[in-house]
Amino acid sequence: MLSHRIICCAASLGLLLLTAFVAPPGHITVYLIGDSTMSIKEVKNYPETGWGMPFAVFFDETVTVDNRAQNGRSTKSFVSENRWQPVAAALHEGDYVFIQFGHNDEVPTKRSYTPEADYKNYLIRFIAETRAKKATPVLLTPVARRKFDATGKVEETHAVYAEIVRTTAREQQVALIDLDRESQAMLQQYGVENSKLLFNQLAPGEHPNYPAGKEDNTHFNELGARKMAQIVLTDIRTLHLELANRIVQREAPKTVDPQAR
To answer: Is 136 within a domain?
Structure first.
């Protein structure tokens, strides 16, 4: 009986010691690659804000968010300008790559235009080269533009390219954040007028960076960027990505939210 107790105590002590020495989560990098709706803005462009900016502050000290998104870039130009290759080379096991393109890929009049088949192939390349480093790719459909029809219903502006992202995610078995549909739902909730408060829309004389005013239905202000970042953060939890364990609660900026009125 005594020997049995000794064995049990020893086992318990061993389990306690094993638990005490479990290695803490290692440091990882989350790379953001995409366009102006995600990118870091220069001071001269404020209050325009990419959603990747507030996104970066919602993680603990084990995470570095490296935002490589650039204004005006498509999948094609991101590669042709040698912006993807340094990311692929720097990846380590456990890292993440969040991939959100489409705004510039889908416009035939832009130099950044990427035909549909090429767009899909670039997405597959990003996925394959990320996985080759034992990192995790996450695909995002392009975030919605603010566009309503005459009845006040949000209009789809990324139908073809967003569907390519969804199809690629299914075929490649990649985590998908459907930012297009979810941001459309948010804009619909805000409505035609209140949704303007999420975008870089300014009256003449309202901000020194835009003395003549600004009416932008693509790029967010600080509130809009934070709302889009919150969609992504929620989906990280819903998808049960390991990254979710590293999200911390931050006090929201003191910005007036029209939905709280």
So the answer is: yes
pTM, to two decimals: 0.87
Q: Are strands 214-220 and 199-202 parallel, antiparallel or unpaired?
A: antiparallel
Question: What is d(CA 150, CA 158) in angstroms, rounded to the nearest whole number?
Answer: 19
69-83: burial string, b at 16+ Cβ within 10 Å, e else: bbbebbbbbbbeeee
Q: 62 near 246, Cβ under 8 Å?
A: yes
Q: What is the CATH number of the domain that holds 118?
A: 3.40.50.1110
DSSP class of 97: E
- 255 within some domain: no
pLDDT in tens, 204-219: 999 999 999 999 999 9
Which range of residues forms the domain containing residue 227? Answer: 26-250
**Distance (Å, whole) CA 118 – CA 97:** 20
User: Which residues have a catalytic role annotated?
Assistant: 36, 215, 219
How far apart are alpha carbons 165 and 100 in whole angstroms? 9
Is residue 90 exposed (0-12), middle (13-18) or buried (19+ Cβ within 10 Å)?
middle
Name which of 68, 110, 106, 98 is nearest 85 in CA terms.
68
Q: Does any domain span residue 259? A: no
The total number of structural domains in the chain stands at 1
Q: What are phi and psi of 255, to 5 degrees?
A: -115, 140
Task: Flag whether 11 is in a domain.
Answer: no
Q: What percent of the chain has pLDDT over 70?
A: 86
Give percent of the chain with pLDDT exceeding 90. Answer: 85
Residues 182, 224: Cα–Cα separation, whole Å = 13
